[in-house]
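Reading group handout, session on sequence-to-structure problems. Before we discuss, look at one worked example. The prompt was deliberately terse, the way you'd type it at a terminal:

> structure Molybdopterin molybdenumtransferase

The input record follows.
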Amino acid sequence: MQLFQKLTDHHDAVRLILENARRLPVEMVPLVEARGLALAEDLYARFDSPPFDNSAVDGYAVRSADAEAGRVFEVVDEAPAGRPAEGSVGEGEAIKIFTGGVIPDGADAVVMVENTSGWGERFELKKGAPAGNNVRERGGDVHEGDLILAAGTEVGVPEIALAATQGYGELPVYRRPKVVVLATGTELVEPGARELAPGEIFDSNSYALVAQALEAGADARRVSAASDDADVLRAAVEEALEDADVVVTSGGVSVGEKDLVKSTLLDLGVSQVFWGVKLKPGKPVFFGARDDAEGSARFFGLPGNPVSAMVCFELFVRPALMAMTGREDRRRPRVSVYFDDDVENKFGRMHAMRVTLTRTEKGLRAESVGAQGSGLVSSLTKADALALIGPESEGVRAGEPVEAIVLREDVLLGAVPGF
Ligand SMILES: Nc1nc2c(c(=O)[nH]1)N[C@H]1C(S)=C(S)[C@@H](COP(=O)(O)OP(=O)(O)OC[C@H]3O[C@@H](n4cnc5c(N)ncnc54)[C@H](O)[C@@H]3O)O[C@H]1N2
Ligand code: MOO
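And the output record:
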């Protein structure tokens, strides 16, 4: 058994993780599958969009020079969307046109059907129209050659729509990381599988961690190794390694005799970057890397305590996944908060304290969610943020600014009192 040597400072731990988080290879992926990933190249407009002058309304295309109230027009053709008219518009003539229809030759304005006597072979115009009326110009959205999406942009819904208007069926993005989550512990039972026997608990971590990985844009799956048996653990890690970019384990990483995760990983050729962080919760976190001919993988040995596992995913695994997919900017918001009362930190480690946030006239007021034990899963359902207290100080004074990582961004939109 090995004991912790020196605990790594939380910021150094994040730095070491990011230094070891290489961007994943670029892949062409179908538009919708690119959602949440970062563009690996600049994207340019291939042509003017819209590609032709077209009508913004259903009505008649006319010459603006003729478009005076009271004038009667002959309808000579029609131009629905997708089928340009064959004829052109001469003096006193009109072409029936629908929204998106190509503006016919000769016409320079469209009158809405509501401003005429109605649909028919002839109509009377009730309201005059200037040149360009209801005409959506070619190139009004983007021009050929425009930089429409810069490399590094996260592909979201508007980006998918814009790329589609330009005929891009696939986008070059950094590949989605493959994450394998492995829970260890003989006491663990799959939720829904059966009732608990004495001493057993349901495995909550692997479900939470898979959900967190999915939320961070990864492909994630669970591997079951609900055991503290070294051979079972080794086999499960070997299986995970077949396709994983990132392996996340929970449990078995502290200093107990059954804490086999670290030694198993080291045996499998993983090199340790750090083990032990000056953080509460999350002291026993292990981070390692394996780069060889078969590929490259990163390993996060997270503590078994459920709050520690989830908080450490937030603080360490999520930034790594973001960096691997080229989304360095996707940090959780960090805000300055204050407490109404003094807050102690007797841990000698930085305390990532679960707090609620309330917007007040003085700013964002943080309040502990209550007991801060690392096994209190319900506490996280109440937390809006993690207030970072320490590690060097013994706490913070009432009113003093404290950095906090916001977990629920909607709290930042909270109504200002008196509004
Ligand atoms: N002598 C010491 N003991 C402990 C230390 C220490 O420094 N010296 N550190 C403590 C801290 S801090 C933590 S955190 C825990 C983490 O230990 P492990 O990562 O080895 O986790 P386990 O012992 O396997 O489990 C801890 C706890 O969490 C429960 N657990 C485990 N897996 C799951 C799961 N998938 N779902 C739900 N709950 C899970 C497990 O039953 C234990 O109760 O070590 C302290 N001890
Ligand atoms: O640091 Mo542990 O992660 O106290 O619960």
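Points for discussion. First: The chain has four domains: 10-24+176-324, 26-49+140-174, 54-136, 334-413. Second: The mean pLDDT is 93.
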